[in-house]
């Protein structure tokens, strides 16, 4: 896990003896940078979650220059559940998530993004599924927030099951836009690898499974995804995916050469369909 400044604004923070431990059932972690336009919808969807578990929302601000911090602080005042974490020391979503996880108080970590919208029941679906697995990936829904043209120009993963990609296609992986992991496992793995600019979530999933952890798909945990708009957005997304795949190929070349560990039966799910 990366070292960063111990700053968290909002109700009880890491200064308490219990803050670093298991005072809550769930910590929802959102990495954000210049997200004032989309973050309010995500925070509103989280505020509407109907759950009996004890939980918090941590927004890790990764150096925003817009009103992202104000949006978070306003939500903190209104709900008493949201905390702002200063994660500006190291650029990148993975580093931001690591810093939020460092000060989180939940036994379970639930990850979603600042530009998407969680569906009703999302917290309970992931939290419940973690009772039987070490990591859980939820369903990505692509129609609500995107035009048909945008949907038709991209591959839309994680609709029916886990994702699979080279060089370890027998191991499932998932987007951190809808991912849950037990806190003890996340700490043992050292969090997201900040050396990777892209596909840090795939790397985390693979490292977990190669260490003996289980990853399952929970279709009841739904996140409405927002695609990057226009051709430039599609190009940037594709470019980032390509860079991440090259990094994964280099990192896991030796593992792939000797054969990956046999997947848990729950990992074998239909591959994402392209539309």
Summarize the structure.
Pfam families: Glycos_transf_2. By secondary structure, the protein is of the alpha/beta class. The chain has nine helices and nine strands.
The assigned CATH architecture is Alpha-Beta Complex
CATH homologous group name: Spore Coat Polysaccharide Biosynthesis Protein SpsA, Chain A
Strand proportion, as a percent range, falls in 15-25%
Strand order of the largest sheet: 1-4-3-2-5-8-7-9-6
Keywords: Transferase
InterPro entries: Glyco_trans_2-like (IPR001173), Nucleotide-diphossugar_trans (IPR029044)
Protein name: Glycosyltransferase family 2 protein
Pfam family, one: Glycos_transf_2
List the helices and strands and how they pair.
Blueprint: E1 8-9, E2 24-32, H1 39-47, E3 55-61, H2 68-79, E4 82-86, H3 93-103, E5 106-113, E6 117-118, H4 122-129, E7 135-141, H5 148-152, E8 179-182, H6 183-189, H7 200-210, E9 215-224, H8 230-251, H9 253-258
Parallel strand pairs: 2-3, 2-5, 3-4, 7-9
Antiparallel strand pairs: 1-4, 5-8, 6-9, 7-8
Helix pairs in contact: 1-2
Question: Which tags fit this structure?
Answer:
single chain; 275 residues; alpha/beta; Spore Coat Polysaccharide Biosynthesis Protein SpsA, Chain A; nine-stranded mixed β-sheet; disordered N terminus
Provide structural commentary.
The structure is a single chain. With 275 residues, the protein is α/β, with parallel strands linked by helices. The chain has a single domain (8-267), classed as Spore Coat Polysaccharide Biosynthesis Protein SpsA, Chain A, CATH 3.90.550. It is built from 9 helices and 9 strands. Strand 3 (55-61), helix 2 and strand 4 (82-86) form a beta-alpha-beta unit. Helix 1 runs parallel beside helix 2. The chain is globular.
């Amino acid at each position: 896990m990366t070292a960063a400044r111990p700053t968290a604004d909002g109700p009880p923070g890491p200064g308490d003896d219990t803050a670093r431990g298991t005072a809550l059932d769930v910590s929802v972690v959102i990495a954000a940078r210049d997200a004032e336009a989309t973050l309010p919808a995500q925070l509103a969807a989280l505020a509407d979650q109907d759950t009996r578990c004890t939980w918090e929302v941590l927004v890790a601000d990764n150096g925003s220059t817009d009103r992202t911090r104000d949006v978070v602080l306003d939500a903190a005042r209104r709900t008493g559940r949201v905390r702002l974490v200063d994660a500006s020391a190291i650029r990148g979503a993975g580093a931001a998530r690591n810093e939020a996880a460092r000060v989180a108080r939940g036994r379970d970590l639930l990850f979603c993004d600042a530009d998407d919208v969680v569906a009703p029941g999302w917290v309970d679906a992931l939290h419940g599924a973690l009772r039987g697995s070490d990591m859980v990936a939820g369903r990505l829904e692509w129609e609500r927030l995107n035009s048909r043209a945008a949907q038709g120009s991209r591959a839309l993963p994680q609709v029916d099951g886990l994702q699979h990609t080279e060089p370890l296609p027998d191991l499932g992986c998932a987007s951190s836009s809808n991912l849950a992991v037990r806190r003890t496992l996340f700490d043992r793995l050292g969090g997201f690898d900040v050396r990777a600019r892209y596909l840090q979530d795939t790397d985390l999933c693979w490292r977990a499974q190669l260490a003996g952890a289980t990853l399952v798909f929970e279709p009841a945990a739904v996140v409405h995804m927002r695609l990057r708009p226009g051709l430039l957005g599609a190009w940037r997304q594709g470019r980032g995916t390509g860079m991440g795949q090259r990094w994964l190929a280099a990192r896991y070349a030796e593992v792939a050469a000797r054969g990956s560990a046999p997947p848990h039966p729950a990992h074998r799910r239909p591959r994402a369909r392209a539309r």
